[in-house]
Every structure is written in C-alpha cells, then in structure tokens.
Design a protein that fits this description.
291 residues, alpha+beta, Beta-Lactamase, five-stranded antiparallel sheet, 10 strands, 39% helix, elongated
C-alpha cells in the first residue's frame, strides 16, 4: 500500500513538473475575525522558477503578500479571496514584474479545500504581439483617415470592408452605411450586374485589364448624382483571403477646369471670338498656368 502511495506521489510530482505552466497550491491565512488576510504557499512546481523567477523552495511556506506585494493592489488578491469565499473561478491576464521587467501572466484559480489551486502561464510574448498589431492597425487607420483619396477595401464577393473618411466625403455614405454592402452601390445602374460577372470571371481566370491600372470612370453618390473619378484597383492576399483595394479620386473640378481650358483655347484672347487655332496640349498647359 505504502509503495503504491509512493509511486502515486512520484507520478504526481512528475506530472506537475513536466508542464511549462506554474502550478501552486495556496492555503488561506485568516485573521482573528475569520477574514482572509493572506495566502501561504503549500506546493509549487519547478515551472514557478521560469514563470515567476522564484524557485519552489523559496515559495513554499511564504505568504503571497510577502513574495508578491503587487498582488494586493492589482486585483489578484481580491480575485483569490472571491474564489475561497464564493467558490468563483478566477481567470485573468495579470501584469506583474520579473527581474525588473514587465510580464503578463494568464492566471486561473479554483477552490481547493480552504485555499486555492492556481496555474500561471507566461503570455508576455502574445500580449506584446497583440499590442504591436493593434498599434500598427491604429497607425494605418490614422493614415487612411488623413489621405485625400477615398480608399475602399472589398472582399472577393465585392462586399465593402473598409471605407475611409475621404470615401465618406466623396460618396456621401457614412462608413456605417457602406460597410457590409456591395461595392456596386457606388456604380452606375448599367454597370452593376456586369461588375458581379466581371469579378467572378477574374477570380476564375486571374486575367484583368483593370487590376493594377488606373482609369477614369463614372460613379454614383448616395443622393444619386453621378461624377467622374480616377479609380485604381489593386489585389491583396491576406492569409487565404483575397481582398481588393480601390483608390478613388473625385476629378469633378478637374473636369470642369479642363472644359474651361478647352473653351478658352478655342477663343481669341483679345476679341473672345471663336478661333480656328488648333488646341494642343501645350496650349492648354500654358493657359492653365494663368488660371
């Protein structure tokens, strides 16, 4: 019997010390009034040294507030008390320090008699990576919101996924109105059905006269008015997804100026009468210099 118990103990020690997560058992330390004042380590596995920077021998017999004074003002201590008093399950990502450097631990605690069983996993790298991604996304969002061109991202079905501030100004739709809708709401009625066919054909053949090139097209605002714009579409792969990025520039004023230049170029500058002079590109450029 004792041999079996000894073997079971060795097996349990082997299991506890084979994991990369810190595993510990803490007993409650109560004051004279019965209020929980602290927790004392009764068991700690070898991973505690890697996760907490403290060897198991340094932890067993010590109290939580002595070893981790920061636990008292960070929600950890209160969370462990709630596990003991109300049999709650405690599960948080907890910031602390190890050898003077900030680390993040995923802490899970469950009640164990008059104490708690706690596991702590070092998730610092994941938290840092998540923060870095969030920071890059925020920088990109700010860039997209400050450019003068409308930038619209759609998926392989033509559904709008991003719609920047300039696109809102150009088309008259708020981002909340445009997101989740088909890009064809911005097209002439005569082009809408053909667009769906074109997109399907491109995804099947990867042949296009539009992707990667700029061109002038007619577009439709929310109020139904049409206008001329320069459109450039590029393709982007994101994991196993295909996305298309459309960059739109409203050239309404440019077209008006161009028409005005052509009108002026066809008139005698002194009399204002129509002239038969040829209207070359150089002539238009010279006239535009004085406008």
């Amino acid at each position: 019997m004792f041999r079996a118990l000894g073997e079971s103990g060795l097996l349990l020690d082997g299991i506890l010390n084979s994991t990369r997560d810190a595993i510990m058992a803490l007993e409650v330390v109560r004051g004279a009034s019965g209020v929980v004042e602290d927790f004392r380590w009764r068991l700690a596995n070898l991973a505690c040294e890697r996760v907490l920077g403290l060897h198991a021998r340094e932890l067993v017999g010590q109290t939580l507030r002595t070893v981790m004074p920061q636990a008292g003002n960070s929600g950890l201590f209160e969370g462990l008390v709630s596990v003991v008093e109300f049999t709650n399950t405690f599960d948080i990502e907890w910031p602390t320090e190890r050898h003077g450097r900030e680390i993040w631990l995923h802490v899970v605690a469950v009640r164990l008699a008059d104490g708690v069983a706690v596991t702590m996993a070092d998730v610092t790298n994941r938290i840092r990576a998540t923060r870095a991604i969030a920071s890059r996304e925020e920088r990109l969002r700010r860039i997209l919101e400050t450019v003068i061109d409308g930038i619209i991202t759609i998926d392989s079905r033509g559904i709008i996924e991003t719609f920047n501030r300039a696109a809102e100004s150009i088309f008259g739709y708020g981002a909340d109105e445009a997101l989740g809708r088909s890009i064809n709401i911005l097209m002439l009625e005569s082009h809408r059905s053909r667009y769906d066919q074109y997109l399907a054909a491109y995804l099947a053949t990867r042949k296009s006269s539009v992707i990667g090139r700029g061109r002038e097209v007619e577009a439709v605002r929310k109020d139904g008015t049409t206008f001329s714009c320069n459109l450039a579409v590029s393709e982007m792969r994101l994991g196993n997804r295909t996305l298309f990025i459309s960059v739109v520039r409203d050239i309404t004023e440019h077209k008006k100026n161009e028409q005005r230049l052509r009108f002026l170029a066809s008139r005698d500058p002194l009399t204002g009468l129509a002239t038969t002079w040829p209207c070359s590109a150089n002539t238009l450029t010279m006239i535009s210099f004085f406008l």
